[in-house]
């Protein structure tokens, strides 16, 4: 059902809906989601348990999320963006309360759309919250870290049950995260470990949403692996958002504009903002600021054919060190409305 051209996708779905109207009310919206089910597996009490369902507007019309709801009080839900233009993305963030609930928890999240048509999509999450392992604090959350600074946090992992329970090893797939595990206490059926998690100074700019896996000697094979969330954001001396920059739709002979936010760790001037495609134009000011709003305009020529146009916007500043930034940008040229 997906297509590189939003308009043809919507028309195809609309034509199909005339033959199957009951299904049409759901399927056009479900097509926007990467997936609709997630299984957290077995998780520790007090651990941060979160998943982001990603959806993208693959249609010409604006898509609006009216509401979200859950069948389980154990699930907290947030929507990162409710109104989506063509090719824009949003996330349905589902967080399971592992402090107030125990045992198997299944939740169905209903996402209701009211533009361009009414539809409902159901998302499903599954988890089993074990009571014998507790994580404090609930995740290794580094917050905002300047590039090259690094960060460290220590968590306490506590177990109640077998006296011979052990964490045999810790697994990580992120080369910029290292860890150290030390047994802190053992006695009376209780075991405690200190887990120190370090974000290395070599970590590149960007978001970190990862997990460490504690591999234990649990006799139940389904419980041997305990995930711990690792989160943070590494900021560079110079950054831009959104990146990539999506300019939406443009008809031949018309223009479209979106704002690019350029931010530094200290006040700076933007000396130039250019693109190899002359149809992309950037407006900059001359004053020194820590945050700059740069309007980016694409002016489609009358002879332009339908399709995606992509470019790289190069921003140069007077910052010392990392003074140049490149941002990918794109726009979809569509046929004029009749």
The overall pLDDT, averaged over residues, is: 90
Q: Class of the largest domain in CATH?
A: Mainly Beta
Radius of gyration: 24 Å
User: Uncertain regions: pLDDT < 50 for 5+ in a row?
Assistant: 1-8, 11-23
Structure notes:
It is a single chain. The chain is mainly beta and 338 residues long. The protein has three domains: 6-129, Immunoglobulins (Immunoglobulin-like), CATH 2.60.40.10; 139-235, Immunoglobulin-like; 238-333, Immunoglobulin-like, CATH 2.60.40. It is 7% helix and 59% strand. It is built from two helices and 23 strands. Strands 1, 3, 5, 7, 8, 10, 12 and 13 form an eight-stranded mixed β-sheet that branches. A hairpin with a 2-residue loop joins β12 (177-187) and β13. The longest helix has 12 residues, at 6-17. The radius of gyration is 24 Å and the shape is flat. Residues 1-8 and 11-23 have low confidence and may be disordered.
Summarize the structure.
It is built from 2 helices and 23 strands.
Topology:
Blueprint: H1 6-17, H2 21-30, E1 37-45, E2 49-56, E3 63-70, E4 75-79, E5 83-84, E6 89-96, E7 103-115, E8 119-136, E9 140-146, E10 151-160, E11 167-171, E12 177-187, E13 190-199, E14 206-216, E15 225-235, E16 238-241, E17 245-250, E18 255-268, E19 270-275, E20 280-282, E21 289-299, E22 307-317, E23 324-333
Helix pairs in contact: 1-2
């Amino acid at each position: 059902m997906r297509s590189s051209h939003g308009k043809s996708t919507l028309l195809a779905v609309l034509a199909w809906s005339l033959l199957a109207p009951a299904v049409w009310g759901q399927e056009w919206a479900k097509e926007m989601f990467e997936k609709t089910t997630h299984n957290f597996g077995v998780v520790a009490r007090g651990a941060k348990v979160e998943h982001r369902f990603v959806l993208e507007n693959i249609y010409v019309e604006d898509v609006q999320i009216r509401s979200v709801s859950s069948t389980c009080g154990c699930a907290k839900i947030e929507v990162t963006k409710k109104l989506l233009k063509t090719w824009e993305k949003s996330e349905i963030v589902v967080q399971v309360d592992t402090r107030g609930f125990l045992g198997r928890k299944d939740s169905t999240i209903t996402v209701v759309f009211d533009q361009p048509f009414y539809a409902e999509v159901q998302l499903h999450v599954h988890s089993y919250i074990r009571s014998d392992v507790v994580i404090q604090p609930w995740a290794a959350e580094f917050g905002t870290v300047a590039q090259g600074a690094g960060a460290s946090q220590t968590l306490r992992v506590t177990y109640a049950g077998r006296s011979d329970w052990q964490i045999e090893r810790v697994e990580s797939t992120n080369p910029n995260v290292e860890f150290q595990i030390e047994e802190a206490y053992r006695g009376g059926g209780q075991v405690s470990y200190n887990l120190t998690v370090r974000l290395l100074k070599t970590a590149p700019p960007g978001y970190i949403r990862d997990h460490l896996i504690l591999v234990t000697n649990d006799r139940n094979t389904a419980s041997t692996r305990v995930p711990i969330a690792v989160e943070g954001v590494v900021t560079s001396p110079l950054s831009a958002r959104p990146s990539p920059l999506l300019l939406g739709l443009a008809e031949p002979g018309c223009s479209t504009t979106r704002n690019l936010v350029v931010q530094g760790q200290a006040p700076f001037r933007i000396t130039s903002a250019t693109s190899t495609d002359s149809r992309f134009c950037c407006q900059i000011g001359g004053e020194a600021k820590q945050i700059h709003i740069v309007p980016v305009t694409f002016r489609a020529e009358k002879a332009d054919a339908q399709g995606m146009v992509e470019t790289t916007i190069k921003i140069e500043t007077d910052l010392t060190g990392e003074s140049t930034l490149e941002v990918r940008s794109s726009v979809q040229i569509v046929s004029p409305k009749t």
